Amino acid sequence: MDSNLASLRSLTITPLEEIEQDEDVQMENSDEFDEEEEEEEEEEEVELKLGFVEKPTNPRSLLRHFFPCKAGGFPAWLDPVNLPLGKSRICGFCGELLQFVLQVYAPIDYKESTFHRTLYVFMCPSMKCLRSDQHEQWRYKQGTPSRSVKVFRCQLPRLNPYYSYIPAKLDGTDRPLSTGVPLCCWCGTWKGEKNCSSCKKARYCSEKHQAMHWNSVHKSECHKLTASDSPIANNANGIGDLTVSKNGSSKATWKEYKIVIKEEWEFESEESEGNSSSVDNSAIVTKYSKTDEAMHSVMDQFEADANNNSWALFQERISRDPEQVLRYCRDPMAKPLWPVSSGRPSKADIPPCAYCKCPLHYEFQIMSQLLYYFGVKNDPDSLDWQTIAVYTCSESCESSVSYKEEFAWVQL
Q1: Which stretch of DSSP H or E encloses residue 34?
Q2: 342/146: higher pLDDT
Q3: Which letter, b or e, does each residue of 293-312 get, where b requires 16 or more Cβ atoms within 10 Å of its Cβ?
């Protein structure tokens, strides 16, 4: 079985020509995979939450002082001042700034410091970089690997300088206690450290985004802003934190959605009652829960292989609620739902927390169905994944860094 598994893994994780050590690294863990498969068969049931996307009825509900769960659009930064800077916000392969994928509001009630707690996922939209990323995720023991998928954790106590002690009301009257740093007028994501040399009002996170904004809309708007005392008109956050060009932002972000969290058992009950969805579920599952032709041919040859079993279990579980884009459970017993058994991590492949050295535990995974809602095309070079599993510090530790990097495992 080990030889078959090695063959399957070489297909699932496409090796780069310049990296010849990946198969050796993965083979070292093959025995651990077999042991963990046996453990997972005895896994206890845990209460699982599922995330579904929908267009918000009130866009204000996605503002940061309402602590939203959201996908696409702009991140609603929990700490609006001390944003990630430098290399932490760029792809480790192409050097481009990462694009916001989603955020999950996940407070922990037994710790004062985690009264507010949000996890953010960013990634490079290049499929070439994602393939490179999948090789690098095996290599944390060999140093600091380059990544194109990054996760940040931010947490605040209830008493903090940014938000009221009393929850905000969705009536347009409540606002954060303070504004945040100015954000880039093109991507609306990262801190606008540079400003337009002419109008002095438009802010940018990079020279590239400044050039893109200039060629798109700012060239015609700049002289008007120079003669005006008012800031840039379109304020995407509606609270003075963000001035972003709507024309530009549509090219630098994915479609924006609210993430609605529900218990998985609710959908098991609906299924038994014969409820159906108005969305074409077959299109969602078929389009973004697929293996390539090479994998299909191998799976046909090895019908009894673990990958076949994993795929069948995965499809059966997902078919109960195929619109899900997120699976969440912080229970220490919880584990990701892997589409295939090859290309998944062993316990030794998950690094410890970079800040306190405590173990990282699985917390949630992103399903490939999200790409369907983002409108990503189903072309060979388009962004695609099977699942992205996010592991976070088991202690949700504190440090002087406001946005702490966690760990993501990508399965293609």
Answers
A1: helix 30-41
A2: 146
A3: eebeebbeeeeebbbbebbe
